Amino acid sequence: MFSQDEQDTLIQILNAIRTEIKNKRILIKPQFQDFDRTKSCHITAEQFRRVLKNTNLLPPSEELFQVLVRKYFDSGNIREINYFEFCQDIDRPEDLFKPYVAKNPVSDITIAPGQLRDAGCTYFGDSTLNLDIISNRFQQKRIETYNNPNDVETRLQAMVVMKRVRIEEFFHDFDKLRKGKVTKNQFQSILSMLNFRLNQEELNSLSDRYKTDDPEQMFNYVDFCANINSAFTTYGIQKQPLATVNPVTVDLTIPARRKYLEMSPEEQEMMNSILHEYSTAIQIKRLNLKQMFQDFDITKNQHVTKHQFLRTLSQCGLSANENIMNLLLKTYCDKGNADEVNYFDFCNDIDSPEMLFGVGRGYNHSFDYYPRNRPRITGIDIKKDVPEDVEDVLAKLRQLCKEQRIRISEFFRDFDKLRTGFITHAQFRIGLNMAKIVLSGNEFGLLTEHFCGKE
Fold it and tell me: 292 and 206, same structural domain?
């Protein structure tokens, strides 16, 4: 035990040794370890004194040294000193070196996978009929209508048709017993595997719509798959021979690719007249409008921001008042927000080649005279030539072999393994067919009679 004076003295000694180590940057632990052959973290008192003396850390008097030694005797063992605890007290890294401070400190709050997506829904539930897109700024509420929980099934149908996915096969991997139901977490994993990104409100809407009646309230994927697949097929059609399935068209995939803002019928009629005026102005000024938009479209996704869209129209001298610009932006904002404008559709509506120069496919009449898919002509071309003698047939063969550079002997040699110079009539006919030499029956008969071998 230490008295109060001895405790104060010990603290002063340790502080003095710690300050000396910090100033001189001394690594003292390796010097103690040189004496610790058994790695027991203990050395003798004389070895301890020797290390402190070599490093100029020895207390000035024997009395102070005995106070220091008594602090690190373990369990009454007065022969060995625990140098490991001594080094922990005086050689702490936080005292020698300043702690590292990261430029971008990482928060202690761990974010689980999918937690940001489930943090909340950004769906804009208000009507966009009287929306002022130009005045909508970043400080205002963000407009996002593509993640509407009410039409999530329609969008999933369009995605399945567009990607040609057999959605029920993904559910079978989780339903080994084919009970027709999976858990909500499994349903969420399947949508992630299909790369269908839905927020938490959309998942809850589907889960509530297709939950089972049992206490577990699992997800009924049989009814869900039947509803999704009804976009391009009809169940039970084998029982109705006269039933027909509607063809898959491009319009079925529009809900997965487009999400337009609301417009009244009056605004649509006004928009048609505005586009006609824009088309007339493009013809008069002879502007290449699409290329100017493409300068802003670095990623080639056929969309630019609304400020880039208005800037391009202003540079071309096609700007109008704020009401017309607002209506124009509302028409071509097709991603469910008020920030991205589809310039590609805008250019096709006012600057298409068919409207300006008449060079589209509809003006090309060559397809009327030369159809792309000609009917295949099938039938047998039977030769009925009647030669006068065998010399006419030989002359015909010489002409064909000369024009097509045919070595006719190579086709007969495969049938004559012993190189006797003789083959059968059938092998002779097969050799001529392989050489693509077509002869009539009379011509073939004359050749066989003339070159018939001795029996």
Answer: no
What amino acid occupies position 112?
Answer: A
Question: Which amino acid is residue 390, in one-letter code?
Answer: V
Give 402-416 pLDDT, tens digit per residue.
888 888 888 888 888
Residues in the chain: 455
Tell me how many degrees the CA angle 142-144-149 measures, rounded to the nearest 5: 135
Residue among 73, 49, 48, 71 at smallest CA distance from 61: 49
Measure the CA–CA gap between 184 and 217, rounded to whole angstroms.
9
Interatomic CA distance for residues 224 and 203, integer angstroms = 13
The 10s digit of each residue's pLDDT in 353-389 is 666 555 555 555 555 555 555 555 555 566 677 777 8
Six-digit token string for 101: 């401070």
Task: List the strands of the sheet with 77-82, edge to edge.
Answer: 42-44, 77-82, 73-74
* Whether 333 contacts 260, CB under 8 Å: yes
User: Which has more pLDDT, 338 or 381?
Assistant: 338
Question: pLDDT digits over 100-145, tens only?
Answer: 666 666 655 554 444 444 445 577 777 888 888 887 665 567 778 8
Same domain, 275 and 241: no
For residue 448, the surrounding DSSP H or E stretch is helix 441-450
- Quick: pLDDT tens for 217-254: 899 999 999 998 888 778 778 888 888 878 888 888 88
Distances (CA, A) of 117 to 41, 107, 112, 153, 154: 52, 19, 10, 19, 21
Give CA–CA dist 195/162, Å, rounded.
13
Where residue 209 sits, what CATH number does that domain have?
A: 1.10.238.10
User: Is 233 in the same domain as 153?
Assistant: yes
- Residue 216: name the closest of 249, 194, 186 by CA: 186
Q: How many domains does the chain have?
A: 4
First-to-last CA distance in the chain?
132
Nearest to 85 by CA among 41, 143, 35, 130: 41
263 CB burial (10 A radius; 0-12, 13-18, 19+): middle
Distance CA 117, CA 106 (A): 20
DSSP assignment string, 28-84: -HHHHHTT-TT--SEEEHHHHHHHHHHTT---SSHHHHHHHHHHTEETTEEEEEEHH
Confirm whether 130 is domain-assigned. no
For residue 246, CA distances in Å to 162, 231, 234, 240, 255 come to: 16, 9, 9, 15, 18
Range of the domain at 437: 390-450
